[in-house]
Amino acid sequence: MMAGRFITFEGGEGAGKSTQARLLAEALAERGIQVELTREPGGTAGAEAIRALLLDPPGDGWDARAEALLFAAARADHLARRIVPALEAGKWVVCDRFLDSSRAYQGGAGGLDDADLMELHRIGSGGILPDMTFLIEVSEDIASARLASRDQGRMDAIEGRDRTYHEKVGETFRRLAMQAPERFVRIDGSGSLSQTHGQVMAALNRFEELQR
Ligand code: TYD
Q1: What are the pLDDT tens digits along the chain (212 aa)?
Q2: DSSP alpha helices (H): ranges in 56-192?
Q3: Per-residue DSSP letters for 183-197?
Q4: Distances in whole angstroms, Cα of residue 37 to Cα of each of 93, 105, 185
Q5: What's the number of domains the chain is made of?
Q6: How far is the CA of 211 from the centre of ligand 1 (A)?
Q7: Containing structural domain, residue 189
Q8: What is the CA 3 to chain-centroid distance, rounded?
Q9: Which of 33, 41, 95, 154 gives a 20 to 30 Å CA spacing to 22?
């Protein structure tokens, strides 16, 4: 039995996940909880090397299948070398993106079957799922405005895909959240950082109450 908790943040581009993941990690640390804050793709040396291949691909880039395999390989290394050891040591792991990003981007938007992606995850990572997933949602307009100020117009290979692709990503996240209400919490990320953080903390407290 794992002693820690595994919490993931998901959402489209510019939703503010990374900031919310950091704010949650800080709040947990203040409660005296040992926290490991990490992200995908990445989190270990090997997975960070795969991240560079994915976000700045050589040649013509990857098709959805090759991309899914690379994300799954990065995730396998990240879980085996970082996430699982941290959980076994009783730490809480807060991860910026995880499996549900593969299901939304390579699955819903890239056209791969969800069952195939789950099978890849089973092969690579024993099918480990988060205890709790925060889906941070904002409108298209807010996301584009945040991205414009963050990236100054520079986009990586996945972020730069067209509007239809990103709409499908958002739809798939919503569907996944509806299919698994026991672990997903949808959070409206359109307010201030502290308003969004407040919603995250309230949902976490409710979740912890239910576990008791
Ligand atoms: P990142 O710069 O971390 O994006 P963000 O700041 O929006 O979280 O880049 C990660 C990109 O990789 C992002 O466009 C989403 C994509 N991605 C997938 O397509 N599949 C996956 O499984 C994961 C983890 C990320």
Answers
A1: 447 999 999 999 989 999 999 999 999 999 999 999 999 999 999 999 999 999 999 999 999 999 999 999 999 999 999 999 999 999 999 999 999 999 999 999 999 999 999 999 999 999 999 999 999 999 888 888 888 887 666 789 999 999 999 999 999 999 999 999 999 999 999 999 999 999 999 999 999 887 77
A2: 64-78, 84-88, 99-102, 114-125, 140-151, 163-179
A3: TEEEEE-SS-HHHHH
A4: 6, 22, 19
A5: 1
A6: 30
A7: 5-211
A8: 21
A9: 154
Residue by residue, DSSP assigns 55-73 as HS-STT---HHHHHHHHHH
The one-character DSSP state at 32 is: T
Dist. CA 209 → ligand 1 center (Å): 31
Looking up tokens 């990857």 gives 62
Ligand 1 centroid vs 159 CA: distance in angstroms?
8
The CATH number assigned to the domain holding 25 equals: 3.40.50.300
